[in-house]
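Subject: mismatched residue count in predicted assembly?

I count 194 residues in my input, but I want to confirm that the predicted structure covers every chain. Input:
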Amino acid sequence: MPMRLAVAVSGRGSNLDALLTACRKDPVAEVVLVLSDRPGAGALARGRAAGVPTAVLADPADAATWMEPLERHRVGMIVLAGYLKLVPAEVVTRYRGRILNVHPALLPAFGGPGMYGRRVHEAVLASGARESGATVHLVDEVYDRGAVLAQARVPVLPGDDAEHLAARVLEAEHRLLPATVLAAARAELHMKGS
Ligand code: GRF
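Triage response: the counts match. Full output below for your records.
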């Protein structure tokens, strides 16, 4: 029986779309809930368009605000796909080892509080790094600290600006996140013997 996924979003939802597409091809996981701290997030509209139940987190810092929809939809794994706030500690405890995040750089570099969106790519360009990429990692109580599960590298090219690099990294995210989530779901289901 498929792993029941909740996807937490704050932005456009292109990673959510990539995950929905992957789950249609591989039934090991199913997106059963889309959560957001932002009522106007484009990703909520994408979830609704795909027929997935959505919920707005009225108080994203409050664990109960998360646990109610997570329990109602019998969620087994949480994926942060562009979600920008910390996950409440009680939720991290309850879902330890089963919350994954995608970050648009090669952690542990270029991560931590405030490192999101174009700021990440500007920092990579300013550093003179010759490559960047995407990271999928486990989520704990500190931004971007959890164990790295998978990474995908992309080149930094001469003349790159933040937009060009962001687009190249986002393409890598769209491949890396679904592949890693499905693999984690498969492993979790095997260990639970289901
Ligand atoms: C992605 O770059 C992701 O790495 C970061 O936020 C962005 C989300 O984009 N955490 P989207 O909303 O999935 O299009």
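The CA atoms of residues 119 and 162 lie 8 Å apart. Marking this ticket as 'not a bug'.
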